[in-house]
Design goal:
The chain has helices at residues 11-22, 35-46, 65-77, 88-103, 129-132, 147-164, 189-194, 198-206, 223-232, 234-238, 240-255, 280-292, 311-317, 329-334, 347-365, 375-381; strands spanning 5-9, 25-28, 58-61, 82-86, 109-114, 140-143, 168-173, 182-186, 262-266, 272-276, 298-303, 305-307. With 414 residues, it is of the alpha/beta class. A seven-stranded mixed beta sheet has the order 3-2-4-5-7-6-12, sandwiched between helices. Strands 9-11-10 form a three-stranded mixed beta sheet, with helices on both faces. The longest helix is centred in the C-terminal third of the chain and has 19 residues, at 347-365. The radius of gyration is 21 Å and the shape is globular.
Length: 414
């Protein structure tokens, strides 16, 4: 085993370090709090630092985040592994190109230090508003919770994106992780490089646009063909959770730290479980230790693979760790208070993961009817700080009424 090396850095440095390893092109435009990722990549390229292919990364600074995303799209079509870095409204400007990148099954990676969107005022601090706005773009979404996790798991986005042909958005909390300075273990570069699928890389190169082998792309399609081609992409997404789980198993072997799409931490007989993603899970783990040491029965589920949301791994990684001899292990998870993501998020963002968790429990574990706590009753017993209970009848957290219905910003459904 290689000798462990430690460095002192923040989350942006960790993400940039891994992104530089796996990138041939970086299209950049600065926006707080992601700017230092692009600055570091630009600095290393100017110094002649080499990536894992023995090349200096080509850095292109555009005139906006929309231009950076367009450059990523074009670079990927030319057969170059490409990354970018952004946050907040910068990520929103990339959305049109994100649809193209995912629709064309191009293995790009966006590293995002998640930040609040400017609404009634500007806020540069950590929030999941920006990444939540990209759930529907077709990008896989990988969440990390600490500086060490950024170092360990950022490579999973690059490795699995190339193998699966699904682009990845790797995100972590702005400032809380992006600028938090920690002493962390530097991941073994040789071991991480060995995980890269060279056959998939060769296939990616062969699919590149080349005047010697012309192909037609970016056509217009009538609805009958368009529908079929959209459906044809499903098999690529179906394969992502297994690929991520396998990559995380390899990362666990390299680092000695356990990683799964969903990681459960806490009492085996937990009666209350929080499901969360982001830096809040670090605090939650300390809280779990504190409460369990005093006789509590609590736990926390850390979500790493947010898109595609895997029922299979939520069941295997979480419910599988709860002993069968409990009185009602399924009910234990079904009736958790589900203060997921972050307690200060709007209800519709909370409701998104809540619905997915309830759907997962129903599909795999048969927790229907009385096993699932009534959302209205739960909200009244454990009200969200910003909850408007006058709208509880149309609340986004009521899963039984929401199949096929769209959540609006006001907390109502259509």
């Amino acid at each position: 085993m290689a000798e462990k090396k430690f460095i002192t850095c923040d989350g942006n440095y960790a993400a940039a370090h891994v992104a530089y390893m796996f990138s041939e092109v970086a299209a950049i435009y600065p926006i707080t709090p992601s700017s230092t990722m692009a600055e570091l990549v630009d600095e290393w390229a100017a110094q002649g630092r080499k990536n894992i292919f023995g090349e200096t990364v080509k850095v292109v600074e555009m005139q906006s985040e929309a231009g950076a995303a367009g450059a990523v799209h074009g670079s990927l079509q030319s057969g170059a592994l490409t990354s970018t870095f952004t946050a907040s409204q910068g990520l929103l400007l990339m959305i049109p190109n994100m649809y193209k990148i995912s629709g064309e099954l191009l293995p790009g990676v966006f590293h995002v230090s998640a930040r609040a969107l400017a609404a009634q005022s500007l806020s540069i601090f950590g929030d999941h508003q920006d990444v939540m706005a990209t759930r529907q773009t077709g990008f896989a979404m990988l969440a990390t919770s600490s500086v060490q996790e950024v170092m360990d798991l950022a490579g999973v986005a690059h490795i699995v994106s190339l193998k699966s042909r699904v682009p990845f958005l790797h995100f972590f909390d702005g400032f809380r992780t992006s600028h938090e300075i920690q002493k962390i273990e530097l991941i073994d570069e040789a071991a991480l490089t060995a995980m890269l699928d060279r056959d998939a890389l060769a296939e990616f190169r062969r699919r590149a646009l080349n005047p010697e082998h012309p192909v037609t792309r970016g056509t217009a399609q009538n609805p009958d063909i368009y529908f079929q081609t959209r459906e044809a992409a499903n098999r690529f997404y179906d394969a992502v959770p297994d690929m991520v789980a396998e990559a995380m198993r390899e990362i666990s072997k390299i680092t000695g730290r356990e990683y799964k799409p969903f990681v459960y931490y806490g009492a085996a007989d937990a009666e209350n479980i929080v499901i969360a993603m982001g830096s809040v899970t670090e605090t939650l783990r300390e809280t779990v230790d504190y409460l369990n040491a005093r006789g509590g029965k609590v736990g926390v589920v850390t979500v790493h693979l947010y898109r595609p949301f895997s029922v299979k791994y939520l069941g295997g990684d979480v419910v599988g760790e709860i002993p069968d001899d409990l009185q009602s292990p399924r009910k234990t998870l079904a009736q958790v208070h589900l203060q997921e993501i972050a307690l200060d998020q709007p209800r519709c963002e909370l409701g998104e993961m809540r619905m997915q968790v309830f759907d997962a429990l129903r599909v795999d574990f048969g927790t229907v009817g009385g096993d699932v706590a009534a959302p209205e009753q739960e909200l009244r017993q454990h009200p969200h700080p910003a909850a408007d209970l006058q709208h509880v009848a149309g609340d986004c957290t009521a899963p039984s009424r929401l199949r096929g219905r769209r959540c609006t910003g006001s907390g109502r459904i259509r």
